[in-house]
């Protein structure tokens, strides 16, 4: 793959100039909160997950004042979109129709610069490789930020966004929606109160990827459809020629743009144990996987995180054993769910749960969607003195409402703000680093943000950006 940029238009030159102060880390003071009668936001990404984030924010009580997407739906429809592209097109078209007064942009840098005090906040529902730049510029412009998971594409980016959120004081939230569920918060309280005694192990699993992973060569170049801004879609990442086998959906399997099944799902499934056990950063980790390459995340992987200072090991399982990548049809042929063994599960249906915490008193099985968590043996609860609730509950179990309540000063913070989500994302992304190292054990120095035994991995901790997208710190 070549690292290149297509010629910049006059508009792009303006945008790069306007965004320079944000990417150069010069603080831009925010306007006075409350200048708008309601919180007005710009939606960065209106198709796919963007539809849910726009809808959730509006339902919470916010006003959508701007829409950003790399697809101009009116032009793109003329190209005869099909499959996932057609579904995305429908979402984008619906957003334009539902919010006719919202100003439309294809470049979020231009939107943030142009809208100024007309917006108070942004939602970020883009592929992973855009999260950092969009969130950074928005926070430096004094905008509150709701960003989809994982928070960033790289470990360094997560560390920087955590710092900038603290510096600016804006209200932030990562889109691991189940974090707002009261049953999760109750289980966190119970684990912290000692319901399991001393914890030694955590196991967490998912059957994803359900999108293509395991490829070792890029698909053939195709003509960019009318109305699709491919230059902007690539953004800060290394250049790759357009193919519908990259966007709008299959990008998750590309290391260049996504973070695979681990990045997509661990911010959901590992959330409760990470929170309950206050795990922080692992001291070491190691992965074994099948089907990975320099281009693609693996078809399946099993990762052992060692939190030696806590005396806890976390085991992550993703994908399907025996699954194959079908290059001709650019899809995965399914295999058998990669999951913990029966000694761990003890008859529990792995399809009904996503994680289990193992302590000296028993095991707790948990799923983020349900309040049907289970402790085995149930006798371990005998005589347990259950604590009073200590974690603030989100209004209506809704993380969009919790974010808005933080903006309005009704609560101090959203529980999955960047102060929590940044370190959590670092831990998740360390697993991606392990997946890319052919089974090497990684010894992690969190303070220095270095792999102590493999300095050659530094380039994966902080990636290079294309011309015009550089960040100076």
Write the SSE topology.
Layout: H1 10-23, E1 40-44, H2 49-60, E2 63-68, H3 73-76, H4 83-98, E3 103-105, H5 108-115, E4 121-124, H6 128-140, E5 144-147, H7 155-168, E6 172-174, H8 182-192, E7 199-206, H9 230-234, H10 260-269, H11 271-276, E8 284-290, E9 300-307, E10 312-321, E11 324-326, E12 331-333, E13 336-337, H12 342-345, E14 355-359, E15 362-366, E16 374-376, H13 399-407, H14 418-435, E17 442-445, E18 450-451, H15 458-461
Parallel strand pairs: 1-2, 1-4, 2-3, 4-5, 5-6, 7-10
Antiparallel strand pairs: 7-14, 8-9, 8-17, 9-10, 10-13, 11-12, 14-15, 15-16, 17-18
Helix pairs in contact: 1-6, 6-7, 7-14, 10-14
N- to C-terminal distance = 28 Å
| Poorly predicted residue ranges | 1-22, 25-36
Briefly note the CATH topology name of the largest domain: Dihydrodipicolinate Reductase, domain 2
The share of residues in helices is 25-40%
State the fourth-level CATH superfamily of the largest domain: Dihydrodipicolinate Reductase, domain 2
| Main beta-sheet annotation | 10 strands, mixed
**Architecture of the largest domain, according to CATH?**
2-Layer Sandwich
> How many domains make up the 3D coordinates?
2
Radius of gyration: 22 Å
**Individual helix count:** 15
Shape: globular
Strand content: 15-25%
Average pLDDT number = 90
Give the CATH level 1 class of the largest domain. Alpha Beta
Category from helices, strands and their pairing: alpha/beta
Number of strands: 18
